[in-house]
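Q: I'm building a small set of examples for a reading group on sequence design. Run inverse folding on the following structure and report the sequence directly after it, with nothing in between.
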């Protein structure tokens, strides 16, 4: 949660903070990651808390604790420690303060803290801290920047109280690594294929190599081949209050859903967001988005999602991850949203922002090789696996273009296969130019994958050139599929009107027949993003007729909140 550089206590006395830390391409000087508060700033914070004294060596909080307080050091110091051996991360001295992004969410802390010497602090509970960041612009910027940079640094350091034992021969390894990374959870990775210490670790917890991947939470709980849901529960990511009736439930934490959560919570609505996998949706796996307003040098999808996630929690939205919606009971008010775990939540209004997913070509063995050479995202985790080899990217949209340019930096050759005659109809011009200027990207038009081969891992691929009807088999161990998109709406059943492709119809796109079938009860027509059920809205890629761009999704999510207010006032 803090600096990625672990120091001895003696070293930390001479080097209070690291001079600089580079993580996720962000230069984070110590004055940003570990700023010193001035007397006037401390006085403003003290109005929200109380003074407390700590004895030398006193445990301030334990790793895994939830809803921990925020501390400003007045006298003495607080040491931040990680792991069972209590490796020292950093010491907060007078003017310093504790905390990272989990401080706002109330989730389990990744580190523990102990007082060093007789210490006096200001203690502020989590709710009062949120009041500070919502009302004090200067402190809000200072604290949020420090919290985010500390978490980024801890992730980059590979430190934490979660140990992940994985193998490249296990399809579940990559999925769980991506889940941890995209949810901003620091962990220590142990490679079961090459690390000689692995067997001793497995013996300690009475697990075998066949149980890999294995996740050890907080040094106590052992998960063998866990599902995403089991891992999220262990880490406290899926907690939610089942009893509350929310003003708004947002289904999906992609750009549209996160935008809706930020605006709803900032305007005083009690908002819950449920997300099946990780914040950011499909956009969260983009290596770099360069045409999003305000980021002229580009930003990764994960960074954008992470910032939006922190914003939503800053304003008080509740976000529960690894919660898959299975049914929406639209025959009652408040609406009842059923989740895969058997839990149900109630809300007066609902925004469906479940997005879309890449289509899987109907090719034998393809499904079995997912995670073992067949991927649907191009992140640094996949790039490491592809280093120095040949890769294939299937698709001609912006996501495929971003992936091609990104992977070209580590792969020897990138074969880009598109069914059409070119890229102009489906890809932004800046990406097309980038692809044309990258010598190790080979564009193959009117070409499709016909077959894949491999047992424990993808080994060979056969593609066919439809223009010449010629076939070629190549030794390629990595294929990225980014071909079109299907809406994530099957779970809705007949609850709301869908078009012929399964996208949700809203507003003026709803026909009189759609409204009759849904027994539309109001004299007014459905609002702009409203579905065939009053108070149920759809935004982003799941909505029929939406523009499949991140900026458009953000716009729809934020604008929809005004319509939610209107419905709640009816």
């Amino acid at each position: 949660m803090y600096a990625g550089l672990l120091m001895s206590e003696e070293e930390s006395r001479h080097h209070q903070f690291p001079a600089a830390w580079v993580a996720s391409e962000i230069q984070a000087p110590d004055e940003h990651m570990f700023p010193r508060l001035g007397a006037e700033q401390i006085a403003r914070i003290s109005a929200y808390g109380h003074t407390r004294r700590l004895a030398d060596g006193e445990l301030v909080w334990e790793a895994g604790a939830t809803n921990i307080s925020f501390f400003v050091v007045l006298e003495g110091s607080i040491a931040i420690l990680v792991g069972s051996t209590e490796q020292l991360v950093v010491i907060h001295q007078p003017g310093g303060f504790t905390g990272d992004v989990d401080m706002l969410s109330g989730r389990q802390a990744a580190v523990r803290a102990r007082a060093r010497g007789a210490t006096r602090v200001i203690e502020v509970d989590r709710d009062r801290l949120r009041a500070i960041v919502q009302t004090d612009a200067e402190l809000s910027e200072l604290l949020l920047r420090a919290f985010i940079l500390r978490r980024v640094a801890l992730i980059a350091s590979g430190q934490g109280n979660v140990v992940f034992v994985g193998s490249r021969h296990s399809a579940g390894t990559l999925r769980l690594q991506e889940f941890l990374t995209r949810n901003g959870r620091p962990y220590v990775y142990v490679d079961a294929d090459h690390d000689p210490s692995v067997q001793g670790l497995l013996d300690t917890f009475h697990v075998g190599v066949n149980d890999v991947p294995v996740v050890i939470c907080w040094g106590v709980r052992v998960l063998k081949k866990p599902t995403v849901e089991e891992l999220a529960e262990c880490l406290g990511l899926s907690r939610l209050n089942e009893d509350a009736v929310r003003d708004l439930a947002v289904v999906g934490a992609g750009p549209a859903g996160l935008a809706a959560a930020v605006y709803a919570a900032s305007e005083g609505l009690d908002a819950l967001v449920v997300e099946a996998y990780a914040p950011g949706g499909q956009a969260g796996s983009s290596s770099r988005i360069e045409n999003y307003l305000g980021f002229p040098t580009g930003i990764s999808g994960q960074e954008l999602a992470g910032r939006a996630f922190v914003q939503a929690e800053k304003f008080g939205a509740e976000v529960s991850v690894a919660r898959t919606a299975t049914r929406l009971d639209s025959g009652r008010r408040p609406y009842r949203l059923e989740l895969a775990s058997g839990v149900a939540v109630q809300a007066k209004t609902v925004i469906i922002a479940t997005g879309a997913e890449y289509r899987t070509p109907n090719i034998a063995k393809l499904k079995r090789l997912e995670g073992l050479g067949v991927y649907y995202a191009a992140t640094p985790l996949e790039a490491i696996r592809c280093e120095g080899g040949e890769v294939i990217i299937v698709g001609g949209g912006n996501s495929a273009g971003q992936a091609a340019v990104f992977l070209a930096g580590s792969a020897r050759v990138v074969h880009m296969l598109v069914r059409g005659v070119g890229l102009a109809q489906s890809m932004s011009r800046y990406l097309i130019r980038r692809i044309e200027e990258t010598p190790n990207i080979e564009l193959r038009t009117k070409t499709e994958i016909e077959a894949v081969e491999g047992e424990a891992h993808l080994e060979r691929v056969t593609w066919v050139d439809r223009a010449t009807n010629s076939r070629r088999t190549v030794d390629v161990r990595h294929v990225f599929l980014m071909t079109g998109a299907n809406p994530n709406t099957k779970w809705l059943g007949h609850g709301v009107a869908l078009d012929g492709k399964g996208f949700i119809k809203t507003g003026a796109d709803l026909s009189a027949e759609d409204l009759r079938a849904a027994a539309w009860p109001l004299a007014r027509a459905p609002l702009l993003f409203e579905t065939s059920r009053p108070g149920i809205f759809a935004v982003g890629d799941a909505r029929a007729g939406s523009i499949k761009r991140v900026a458009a999704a953000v716009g729809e999510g934020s604008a929809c909140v005004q319509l939610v207010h209107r419905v709640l006032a009816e």
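Confidence is low (pLDDT under 50) at residues 1-29.
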